[in-house]
Design a protein that fits this description.
alpha/beta, Rossmann fold, six-stranded parallel β-sheet, 11 helices, 11 strands, about 15% strand, binds guanine
């Protein structure tokens, strides 16, 4: 069994740096502010967004939680975003995805001012990331790089294999790993002989959104595994497939009626040199990096230099 990479502990470290930065800005009359827009009824999204707002409060950032009805139109959302772009007290705007199906997500993400795009989803920020001048790297991808660096795990020259090509996680993670001089392979649902590629990975990123997809036979012994998946399982059959014999999880499963498994089968972690657990690995870092991006946005918008620590 490899070393557990304690994402929650590293996220707490980053958060304390953000808190210190917020305190440094306060005497100048600056309080970084985040607007979080949650339009869908998706229960997981509601949990994530509330957790983001709560973290703002804990770190001294201002926050505004906006809850349009899930019948909201693209035009109404565009008007809302226009208002947030203009607000002096808002430094970061987060449009929680997924959006209701009638809304044109792409148009909304392009309407967010790039200076306030703390999720890093606007094409301007995507382009900046590609060209090595990222103002706001997407939070999950940036969190994984922070995790590797702060855990003193080398990236340069390593073969990083990213399984999953989403705009939110897979693609930006590959770009950031490349910027750190990894050799990067991106795999996806049409990749032929996936196992032959994952077996080459020194750093294996699982961002597919399918429970337990990466199995032990797909992992090179000693590899670093970063598991981005958060999949809820609710049947006994599924539970046993991943966690049979795990007493701690068994008790939680009985109490809650469900459990969370990542995109990596727990048995695959036995092969790893180091790995992120689910939950408590990559997840907490996403929120920490969102806070870091918001503080950075507050500084950049006022022409102040980037904070040194973040
Ligand atoms: N949905 C899933 N992950 C994310 C994220 O990082 N940001 C936003 N806005 N929506 C998400």
């Amino acid at each position: 069994m490899g070393t557990i990479l304690d994402g929650a502990a590293i996220a707490a470290q980053i958060q304390s740096e953000v808190r210190a930065e917020v305190a440094r800005l306060a005497p100048h009359g600056i309080r970084p502010g985040l607007a979080a827009v949650l339009a869908s009824q998706d229960p997981a999204s509601a949990i994530y967004v509330r957790s983001k707002v709560r973290t703002c409060e804990e770190l001294g950032l201002a926050s505004d939680l906006i809850l349009p009805p899930d019948t909201v139109t693209t035009e109404e959302m565009l008007a809302l975003i226009g208002g947030l772009n203009a607000r002096e007290d808002i430094d970061g705007i987060l449009i929680q995805l997924p959006l209701p199906p009638q809304v044109q997500a792409r148009r909304l993400l392009e309407a967010v001012s790039p200076e306030k795009d703390v999720d890093g989803f606007h094409p301007v920020n995507v382009g900046r990331l590609q060209t090595g001048q990222a103002a706001f790297p997407p939070c999950t991808a940036a969190g994984m790089i922070e995790l590797l660096k702060r855990s003193k795990l080398p990236i340069a020259g390593r073969h990083a294999v990213v399984v999953g090509r989403s705009d939110i996680v897979g693609k930006p993670t590959a770009i950031l790993l490349l910027a750190e001089n990894a050799t990067v392979t991106i795999c996806h649902s049409k990749t032929r002989d996936l196992r032959a590629l994952t077996l080459q990975a020194d750093i294996l990123v699982a961002a597919i959104g399918r429970p337990g997809f990466i199995t032990a036979d797909m992992v090179k012994p000693g590899a670093v595994i970063l598991d981005v998946g958060i999949n809820r399982i609710a049947t006994r059959e599924e539970f046993d497939k991943y966690f049979a014999g795990d007493q701690r999880r068994e008790e939680l499963f009985r109490r809650r009626g469900s459990a969370i498994v990542g995109d990596v089968h727990p048995a695959a972690f036995l092969q790893a040199g180091a790995y992120t657990p689910v939950p408590g690995g990559v997840g907490p870092l996403t929120i920490a990096m969102l806070m870091a991006n918001t503080v950075r946005a507050a500084r950049l918008r006022r022409g102040l230099p980037r904070p040194e620590c973040l």
